[in-house]
Write a structure and sequence with these properties.
By secondary structure, the protein is of the alpha+beta class. Helices cover 33% and strands 17% of the residues.
């Protein structure tokens, strides 16, 4: 779930049929278990990974079992969503499709794919708006929890905005923006390394899961246009606007200082799931 990227195509399979095709609109978030799961979700944890996807229902569902002569040669060896006999793999909730398999399915959809392709070509919902909507949903879920006292709820909610005990914890060892060098705390944002929307309650408040960043640097980091190696080298996304970065004085491979060991797992998450490599 965490490896899905905005723009990725998702085929939905249910009742032995491919019934819809969707497009991921934002990276995965750590969200409360949906209430509509009911008793069937009792054995699952209270939180899980949610991928925002915009779906388009197929007018005519596709039954893979009827076309295994076309699909079977392209099935992945591991973690295949469909078994060689055409039955679904109940152990695969979300599986990566090889390009050959996706092309085979698209070919079988025929004229239906033209309609889907038109849907997929529409502009993606702005990611910042999607993140705000998702985080607002998570924040409301935090406020509604009955297993947390009001103090703990307030701490978690405030940490979303880089405030409260989270910021105090962070300011204990981060003293300035690592790129601009600005040290006036009035002009720095407490930015989560592993995003608030993807963090556990502990990680939301952990000062090690943060950096003090100038607002424009916070924007680039939060949106995955820049990241850092464990030793403090700045990484820049190939699709970033280098003219803007040059104006802001951000240099490729610039050194901003090594990080604390406790920060490294969070940086690894950012590089793997947020950074637009």
């Amino acid at each position: 779930m965490k490896r899905v990227r905005p723009g990725d195509i998702v085929f939905t399979y249910a009742g032995a049929e491919i019934r819809a095709v969707g497009r991921c609109s934002a990276p995965a978030i750590l969200a409360p278990k949906p209430g509509e799961f009911g008793a069937s979700g009792d054995s699952w944890g209270d939180e899980g990974w949610k991928v925002p996807v915009e779906f388009k229902t197929l007018r005519t569902p596709l039954r893979p079992k009827d076309h295994m002569d076309v699909i079977e040669p392209s099935l992945p060896v591991k973690y295949s969503p469909i078994q060689p006999n055409g039955d679904g793999n109940q152990g695969a909730y979300l599986a990566a499709l090889p390009a050959e398999m996706a092309e085979a399915v698209i070919g079988l959809l025929g004229d239906s794919w033209d309609e889907i392709e038109a849907f997929l070509s529409t502009e993606l919902i702005d990611q910042i708006d999607m993140f705000e909507e998702s985080e607002a949903e998570i924040e409301q879920a935090v406020r509604n929890r009955t297993d947390l006292d009001e103090t703990e709820k307030l701490r978690l909610v405030n940490s979303r905005r880089g405030q409260g005990i989270y910021r105090q914890n962070l300011e204990g060892f981060e003293k300035c923006c690592r790129i601009t060098g600005v040290s006036n705390l009035l002009h720095l944002r407490a930015s989560h390394i592993k995003p608030w929307r993807a963090s556990t309650n502990f990680e939301k408040l952990d000062g090690n899961n943060g950096l003090l960043l100038s607002p424009h640097i916070d924007h680039l980091f939060d949106q995955g246009f820049i990241s850092f190696t464990d030793t403090g080298k700045v990484l820049i996304c190939p699709s970033a606007d280098f003219e803007t970065l040059n104006i802001w004085g951000i240099e490729r491979d610039a050194q901003c200082g090594a990080f604390r060991p406790e920060q490294l797992p969070y940086l690894e998450f950012h590089r793997e799931f947020i950074f637009r490599f």
